[in-house]
Amino acid sequence: MDKEPHISQRFDEELQGVHELVLTMAGVVEEQFANAMVALQHQDSELANEIISRDAVVNGYEVRIEEECIGILARRQPAAGDLRLVMTLIKTIADLERIGDKAAKIANMVLSMGHGSQAIHANFLRDVHAMGEYALRMLREAMDALARADADAAIRIARGDEELNQEYRGATRRLVTYMMEDPRTITAAIDALFIAKAVERVGDHARNVCEYVIYLAKGRNVRHIPLEQVAKDLQKGAS
Amino acid sequence: MDKEPHISQRFDEELQGVHELVLTMAGVVEEQFANAMVALQHQDSELANEIISRDAVVNGYEVRIEEECIGILARRQPAAGDLRLVMTLIKTIADLERIGDKAAKIANMVLSMGHGSQAIHANFLRDVHAMGEYALRMLREAMDALARADADAAIRIARGDEELNQEYRGATRRLVTYMMEDPRTITAAIDALFIAKAVERVGDHARNVCEYVIYLAKGRNVRHIPLEQVAKDLQKGAS
């Protein structure tokens, strides 16, 4: 019996350790994405190159954390809430890694746009700046909700994704208008279109993390269920 | 002692059952994607509607299989190869679900393109048809490699993704040319661009499954490692 608390304490420490590693990875990914937005606004190819080379760091975190999670599953055989936490972390790092990819992709486009970049309309830069700020806030808040296993916050943040999607649709409509008015802008506008899409996808990944947080806190898989209904169900469960 | 084989046999059956369920889900997803390509070629809105409503079936498989996998982790506490198999299946269904999303997305575009659809250049339809065939073959072969845990096949299939990416780049270049030549095609060409992108992404997901198969068969996480090197390393390991 007297070994129990010791084993369980070490287990808790292991779980805590990998949880913290995920939050560290999230910090690196947030910075990568924020930098990609800056590189885009200022056509800063030095910063863009830095982001691209730092993507390997993000990938390294993903591989290391996944190995640690599988190690915990094999050695500790967690159940109930502990198992849900490990599953949540495994899924979260896959989304974080993909956000890192988006940052690197945007950085790559900053480099490849080169001379054509002046053709990027100032209005588009304003659009994508606002979208980037919004996506970054979603990501930060989602990771906060994960750190606190806060399902209510997660629902609220996930709902914000619809607003980002609307921004995206507006931005693409405006880009199409520029292209039609001046076909010389077509190539630059298509790059811009894919940049806007990448930013919109960051919001989707943040929303995914929110869904894992609801699963972690409530034990319910809410993927593919409208958020409206999830909020109602959780309220019913709480009362 | 005599309970061991019984427990282990039931465990094997559980694993086998969930493995088969994944292959069934893959069959549904393959059909969804193949149908999306047909709906696009023939501007068939009835088929498109069918694909969209059937996406819920794909999502249902994802939720059910994930629950079964987590149940196996909790009850059976698998180790080594069994644990790798469960992790591989959990990851695979996430990619399959996303391929299902791409099929539904293409079907949605078939519907929304409406009257403008005649503006889609016959050359683009030829391009995307060839890309779709290629992506579908990659997906089928990847699921085959998974069923046989065949790492060599997985490497070969994953390498094919580069060819699909080249096809995609060629198709987008041609689309940009049409847009420049005739700005009236811009809206339709942008729809076409996103359809081509969705098909290209199906190849990425098939490639992901190949990476999980290598992990399953060899116990090595090969994500973020060039395939050239993976092939060399595995050959060395085998000799």
Automatic annotation (TrEMBL), chains A, B:
A Gene Ontology BP annotation from the UniProt entry: intracellular phosphate ion homeostasis
GO cellular component assignments: cytoplasm
Ranges for domain PhoU: 23-109, 130-213
Key word Zinc present: no
Subcellular location per the Swiss-Prot or TrEMBL entry: Cytoplasm
InterPro entries: PhoU, PhoU-like_sf, PhoU_dom
Keyword line: Cytoplasm, Phosphate transport, Transport
Major localisation: cytoplasm
Top-level division of the source organism's lineage: Bacteria
Assembly and oligomerization: Homodimer.
Family: Belongs to the PhoU family.
Biological function: Plays a role in the regulation of phosphate uptake.
Protein name: Phosphate-specific transport system accessory protein PhoU
Higher taxonomy: Bacteria, Pseudomonadati, Pseudomonadota, Acidithiobacillia, Acidithiobacillales
